[in-house]
């Protein structure tokens, strides 16, 4: 017995595997691979889908799972934490995009209901692509990451009302007022059912299921619950997607939500692939080729409209211009929910076929551009800042920021021998508490409006500013600081900050908190003294708890952890010495430092000279402790020991003398 759909599944998914493997090599998201696979198997290419209706049914199941998981992730409590960005920022972005798109479309001769629906489609961005890339770059918690996340959450919520309003826009109801009232009554009825399920029924059922300790029963219960609520909303004339979303919200507040997500994710990944494949198969290649110029013009128009609105929204939310540009470069594309919504528009005759083909082409192209734009977003933001804001204006803005942010800090700004904390997140707050408790002077740098507000309420010495900006660093006396702690989630910004700090001081001790072990070497190369990766520290914490269970003494545990940090960290960073004899620690002597200087400049009397003839001790009042030449360490320093170009020279002396020597051998 032959199952007709089985051939389509094997062919479609088989082609998808090959394409996605190739796309992974190019670092392009898998969603684009599925779209491309759909184009290949579609009627305008090789026409390999003979059971297209069945594939569409599979794609509907994928949408149910997608909205179910989004409902789980968008818990009511989670929404409240970033409610300002979600509801104000998201509302302004979606509303502004709909308005401008509709006006442009009507100017081009499109009917008002179709123009508004086009606004719906263009206003939505790709949650799947953007969040995946921001997570990979470690920028979810960065200022622009928070803006993007908040707006995307609002878009995910608003797509459900958009689906409900689409039939009304299509004029499928003679009495719009009566239709809206009926719709409202249905929503209230479903809301009551959802409340009862969430409060009484679902917790009881899941409690019984969990007590059974049967994993298969838990998975089955989760899926049946998801489909039941979807079927309930569909049976009263609402959408399947709305029911799946409500089902997710019901589970989101329970302690079983994480396991439910883990169980459903594999099903979502499989079935959602059919959705993107079916969308890709609808693209008419002949239409695309014949109208490529107009399509590219529409792509440019979409980019301009969305970037402009997102940037303005970020500024309204009191973010800095750099954050505004970064946010605009993150969510400029047309997203997967727009593709879903477009199918609803087709069913209600809101989108003519020609307009639908234009929309499909624009959607696919903007999603394809996203990975490449996000990878270059830092450079493009820096360029846009320089291009749009004159240098003098930028200087005045920076000065005003410094003056305004420092009113409640220390009026004479005479910081000395202090700790500079970059980032007022969880790590920054913990460090500031400890330094405050033991009376170590410190100052905090941050650019997040909410962080600044919170810190000032707690009377924390915080300065608003970019830690990579020389003006900001001068203001906080970076050259007199003893330690700089960089505790932000942006790896590119971290490296820029390290480089900027090193231009002012070679003696300040820079500690960096990073996410991954693989980032240690990059930060060490640009000048960090110590890099603490979260994933490695987590392993150490787990390891110490394991040792406690084996009755290992606390003293022995501390020795083991010390050995791990002093050996494995060096082993993980190829540029650190493996010999403990060559490792120099900061000496706690007032006004004296141990520093490492890189001999880069040959046009002086030091490179190529011996210790004695170079006059290092006599002219600069410093002592050479050791020299690293390539992979070799010279620890037996004699008066006739030579200093060569590209040597790393370990010296001891006053910070002002060390900085004076560094200028001679480096610049």
From TrEMBL:
- PROSITE patterns per the UniProt record, alphabetical: RCK_C (PS51202), RCK_N (PS51201)
Q: Which InterPro entries match?
A: Cation/H_exchanger_TM (IPR006153), Na+/solute_symporter_sf (IPR038770), NAD(P)-bd_dom_sf (IPR036291), RCK_C (IPR006037), RCK_C_sf (IPR036721), RCK_N (IPR003148)
Principal localization reads: membrane
Question: Which Pfam families does its entry note?
Answer: Na_H_Exchanger, TrkA_C, TrkA_N
Instruction: Cite the RCK N-terminal domain residue spans from the record.
Output: 416-533
Per the record, the similarity remark reads:
Belongs to the monovalent cation:proton antiporter 2 (CPA2) transporter (TC 2.A.37) family.
Per its record, how is this protein called by name? Cation:proton antiporter
Q: Native species of this protein? A: Psychroflexus longus
Q: From which lineage does this chain's organism come?
A: Bacteria, Pseudomonadati, Bacteroidota, Flavobacteriia, Flavobacteriales
């Amino acid at each position: 017995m032959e199952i007709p759909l089985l051939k389509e599944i094997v062919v479609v998914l088989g082609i998808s595997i090959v394409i996605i493997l190739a796309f992974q090599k190019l670092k392009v998201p898998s969603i684009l691979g599925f779209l491309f696979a759909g184009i290949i198997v579609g009627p305008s290419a090789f026409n390999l889908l003979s059971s297209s209706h069945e594939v569409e049914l599979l794609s509907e199941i994928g949408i149910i799972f997608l909205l179910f998981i989004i409902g789980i992730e968008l818990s009511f409590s989670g929404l409240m934490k970033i409610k300002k960005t979600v509801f104000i920022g998201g509302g302004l972005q979606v509303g502004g995009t709909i308005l401008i798109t509709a006006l442009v479309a009507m100017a081009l001769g499109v009917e008002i209901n179709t123009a508004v629906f086009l606004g719906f489609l263009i206003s939505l961005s790709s949650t799947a692509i953007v969040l995946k890339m921001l997570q990979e770059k470690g920028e979810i918690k960065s200022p622009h990451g928070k803006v993007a996340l908040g707006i995307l959450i609002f878009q995910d919520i608003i797509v459900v009302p958009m689906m409900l309003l689409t039939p009304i826009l299509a004029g499928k109801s003679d009495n719009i007022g009566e239709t809206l009232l009926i719709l409202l009554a249905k929503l209230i009825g479903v809301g009551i059912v959802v409340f009862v399920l969430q409060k009484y029924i679902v917790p009881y059922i899941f409690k019984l299921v969990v007590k059974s300790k049967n994993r298969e029963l838990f998975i089955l219960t989760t899926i049946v619950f998801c489909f039941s609520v979807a079927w309930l909303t569909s049976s009263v004339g609402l959408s399947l997607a709305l029911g799946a979303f409500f089902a997710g919200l019901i589970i989101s507040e329970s302690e079983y939500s994480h396991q439910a997500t883990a169980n459903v994710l594999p099903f979502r990944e499989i079935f959602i692939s059919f959705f993107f494949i079916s969308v890709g198969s609808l693209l008419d290649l002949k239409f695309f080729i014949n109208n490529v110029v107009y399509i590219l013009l529409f792509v440019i128009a979409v980019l301009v409209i969305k970037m402009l609105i997102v940037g303005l929204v970020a500024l309204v939310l009191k973010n800095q211009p750099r954050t505004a540009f970064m946010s605009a470069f993150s969510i400029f594309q047309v997203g997967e929910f727009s593709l879903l919504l477009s199918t609803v528009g087709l069913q209600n005759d809101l989108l003519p076929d020609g307009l639908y083909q234009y929309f499909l082409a624009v959607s696919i192209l903007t999603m394809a551009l996203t990975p490449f734009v996000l990878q270059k977003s830092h450079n493009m933001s820096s360029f846009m800042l320089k291009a749009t804001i004159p240098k003098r204006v930028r200087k005045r803005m920076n000065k005003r920021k410094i003056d305004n942010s420092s009113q409640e800090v220390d009026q004479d700004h005479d910081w000395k021998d202090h700790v500079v904390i970059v980032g007022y997140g969880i790590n920054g707050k913990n460090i500031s508490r400890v330094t405050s408790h033991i009376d170590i002077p410190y100052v905090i740098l941050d650019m997040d409006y909410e962080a600044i507000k919170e810190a000032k309420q707690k009377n924390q010495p915080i300065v608003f500013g970019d830690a990579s900006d020389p003006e900001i660093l001068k203001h906080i006396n970076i050259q007199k600081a003893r330690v700089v702690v960089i505790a932000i989630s942006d790896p590119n910004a971290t490296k820029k900050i390290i480089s900027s700090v090193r231009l002012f001081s070679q003696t300040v001790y820079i500690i960096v908190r990073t996410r991954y072990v693989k980032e240690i070497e990059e930060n060490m190369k640009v000048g960090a003294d110590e890099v603490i990766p979260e994933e490695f520290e987590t392993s150490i914490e787990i390891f110490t708890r394991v040792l406690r269970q084996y009755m290992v003494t606390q003293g022995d545990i501390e020795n083991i952890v010390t050995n791990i940090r002093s050996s494995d960290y060096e082993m993980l960073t190829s540029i650190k010495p493996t010999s403990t004899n060559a490792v120099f620690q900061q000496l706690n002597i007032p006004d004296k430092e141990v520093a490492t200087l890189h001999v880069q400049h040959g046009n002086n009397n030091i490179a190529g000279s011996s210790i004695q003839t170079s006059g290092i001790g006599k002219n600069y009042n410093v002592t050479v402790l050791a020299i690293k030449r390539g992979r070799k360490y010279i620890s037996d320093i004699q008066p006739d020991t030579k200093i060569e170009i590209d040597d790393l020279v370990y010296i001891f002396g006053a910070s002002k003398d060390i900085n004076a020597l560094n200028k001679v051998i480096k610049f």
